[in-house]
Specification:
Layout (H helix, E strand, L loop, with lengths): L1 H17 L9 E2 L4 E2 L3 E3 L5 E3 L3 E3 L3 E4 L5 E3 L3 E3 L4 E3 L1 E2 L10 H7 L4 E2 L2 E3 L4 E2 L4 E2 L4 E2 L4 E2 L4 E2 L7 E4 L4 E5 L3 H11 L8 H9 L2
Parallel strand pairs: 1-4, 2-5, 3-6, 4-7, 5-8, 6-9, 7-12, 8-13, 9-14, 12-15, 13-16, 14-17, 16-18
Antiparallel strand pairs: 10-11, 18-19
Length: about 200
């Protein structure tokens, strides 16, 4: 039993050395943040974490200049992949696609933003230039390629909204309880969440 315990401890130590991302290496890291190994972030200075964020093991962030911004009260299950950049889909006529990919010629980078109170299921991929609205849930194994409106439940590949999480009145009440007046979604916008279906 002692050998198994020692091996377990040794593997944990090796993981933390190999995946050497700590809170101090991030651009910002709020209070009460849980980061579970393994974590792979090639540019941790582009990652901004708010307060009360829990990220389970297997996070991979592939970025060069694009930012990953995770706001407050966010829960993320195992194996989230975030990509902030994309290779060109139209290389010069005299250049192989793979050469553009290796050189970065024509690459585009853009931020990924995860708003407050979001829950992301296991094994999700989020692509560049995506904003996930506050209070949303992203289902397991989804590939998010477009913005997700607030208070949505969205699933699939590509990820699509299947329903709104609360009724209109519940969203208005939740906004009053959880957000200061200047930070609440306005009624017209909340109303649009139901009329755009």
């Amino acid at each position: 039993m002692k050998i198994v315990s020692k091996l377990h401890h040794m593997i944990g130590t090796l993981k933390s050395l190999y995946y050497n991302i700590d809170k101090e290496s991030l651009a910002t890291c709020g209070e009460n943040v849980i980061l579970e190994y393994p974590i792979k972030i090639n540019h941790p200075q582009n990652v901004y974490l708010g307060n009360d964020v829990a990220i389970r093991g297997g996070l991979t962030v592939i970025s060069h200049t694009g930012k990953l911004i995770i706001k407050d009260h966010v829960g993320i299950s195992q194996s989230l992949t975030v990509v902030t950049g994309n290779h060109t889909t139209k290389p010069p006529l005299n250049t192989w696609q793979v050469d553009c990919n290796h050189s970065g010629l024509g690459d585009k980078e853009s931020d990924v933003i995860i708003e407050n109170d979001v829950w992301i299921g296991i094994n999700v991929t989020i692509m560049p230039n995506v904003k996930i609205g506050r209070g949303s849930i992203i289902g397991a194994c989804s590939v998010v390629t477009k913005d997700i409106p607030p208070y949505s439940i969205a699933v699939g590949n590509p990820c699509k909204v299947i329903r709104v999480k609360f009724t209109k009145d519940e969203i208005i009440e939740r906004e009053k309880i959880l957000y200061p007046e200047g930070e609440r979604l306005d009624f017209a916008y909340i109303n649009s969440l139901f009329h755009n279906k």
